[in-house]
Prior knowledge:
283 residues; mainly alpha; Tetracycline Repressor, domain 2; globular
Amino acid sequence: MVLELGRLVRFSHTVFSVPFAVAAAAVASVDHPITLRVALLVLICVTGARTAAMGYNRIADREIDAKNPRTAKRELPKGAVSIRAAGLLTAVSGAAFLGAAFLISPLTGVLAVVALPLALGYSLAKRFTWLCHFWLGVVLALAPIGAWVAVAGRFDAFPILLGAGVLCWIGGFDIVYALADMDFDRREGLHSFPARFGPRVTLATSAVLHLFAPLFFVAAGVASGRGPSYFAGVACAAAALLAGQIVTLRGGKGDAVFNANGWVSLLFGAAAVVDVVLSGAVA
């Protein structure tokens, strides 16, 4: 059951939120030393929020997933996980997120109360708007912003610019990922960017968004005075974005696009942490 629940919420998808949150916390720790307690609470927040959101997504979409050949073998449609178990996992994860956030500070607790409904609401967005992909981008952009506030206790230019880059990256990725379900979405009356605008506009929009994403990452680094390692990480992330665009242009869909884009946050997050460590060693 544990393995089935892990597959239900796709823990592999943590590569889209955790590395950016870790990067933001690491950069914030340069001027605001981070304690082990806060670091663990931030990790609980990020993991709890994404698990709750993914669990609710699977519950809300179970009937839609059952109709879609691409998703019909997911755990809820095929009966490998019960709705009760999925609901319990979602509730516990959401409670862990809120509890950890309030343990960090009242400010992060209030932000969590706002963020959780946004994260859960994404699952329903495609029923009424093709902006659902950018809704997801906003939700994931909150991860580095929240991590920064947890460590620094305030907002700053770095997390805002980094969050803008995450929004562009996720929006550009998710609209091409949705190409795999374009025909299904149209038949079922679901709203998605590809269903509304077609493949050509989707590909062009994704390319533009993935051009802006590394520019925002660069701006965040400049605003916070980051070093060479950080910008090398941005270059690697930009290369991963380009690889994702190439995979898409060659006809790749679904997991093929996911795998290419998964490297973006991993490369960036690792480089940002290394840059902080090296800057501390030099200092």
